[in-house]
Amino acid sequence: MLSGLRADGKERKQVEVLTQVIRLVLVELLNHESNSDIMLVATRALTLLCDVLLSLCVAVVHYGVKVEEKRI
Length: 72
Fold this sequence. Notes:
Blueprint: H1 2-5, H2 11-30, H3 36-52, H4 56-62
Helix pairs in contact: 2-3
């Protein structure tokens, strides 16, 4: 995966790899309810990626980030 992210001049390849990272890693970590620190870091990473590449927002929604409202 890292070599795909380092593919200079191949933006399409980089977007494909980032989509895989979202699907395989970040969404899984975001749903890691037993550790809130992991969830927070994954959320920050997804937020930054979506700010940079708006097309990745579709991947985040598509791969099923669970959103639950918790009342205090």
